[in-house]
Design goal:
By secondary structure, the protein is mainly beta. 5% of the residues lie in helices and 32% in strands. The strands form four sheets. The chain has a six-stranded antiparallel β-sheet, with no helix packed on it. A five-stranded antiparallel β-sheet has the order 2-8-6-4-5, with no helix packed on it. It has a two-stranded antiparallel sheet with strand order 3-7. This is DUF2190 family protein.
Length: 174
């Protein structure tokens, strides 16, 4: 489910990768704590959105603050709207998964479904999910029935870093 408001995300402190400021693409709103993708033109959008000004090319981290660059943003003033950049943070965060991972998945790549949820599956769709779930070394037929939905590539967020004692999974974004 995509975010509709700011959120706080639990973080494990780790050495950070470089962090950069980015402008929010015109027509988009980014919430604090949302996963953001950088587009080919250098602007950012919430992960998983469509109709972007240019193609999203990478997940760059979590938004440090709310920014509205949509038509509705004219209701706000100051740092909450406009073209000035916001900083995107990297680190190790508790992010919700579409399907619960296990210790066997630690170190595996994690992919964005939307600006809130992540997955161990690199592609959406039935055929892709079957291929991602198949045991290593097995073969999946590419002759999928026409009734099966096609798949879409997802952008990489980072890797599954581990679990808190209560079972909460943490994703390392670098």
């Amino acid at each position: 489910m995509a975010l509709k408001q700011d959120r706080a995300v639990e973080e494990k402190l780790v050495p950070h990768a470089p962090e950069f400021g980015h402008r929010v693409a015109k027509g988009f709103r980014v919430y604090r704590g949302s996963l953001v993708a950088v587009c080919a033109d250098g602007t950012i959008v919430p992960a998983g959105v469509t109709d972007t000004p240019s193609a999203p090319v990478a997940i760059v981290g979590l938004a440090r603050q709310f920014k509205d660059h949509s038509a509705a943003g004219s209701m706000f003033n100051g740092d909450r709207v406009g073209t000035h950049p916001i900083w995107v943070k990297k680190g190790c965060y508790a992010l919700p998964f579409d399907t619960a991972p296990s210790w066997a998945n630690v170190g595996q790549p994690v992919y964005a479904i939307d600006d809130e949820t992540v997955s161990l599956s690199a592609r959406s769709g039935t055929v892709a999910a079957a291929a991602d779930a198949a045991p290593f070394g097995s073969t999946i037929s590419s002759d999928a029935p026409a009734s099966m939905p096609s798949s879409t590539a997802r952008l990489s967020v980072g890797t599954l870093a581990g679990f808190e004692v209560d079972g909460t999974p943490y994703v390392l974004i670098v």
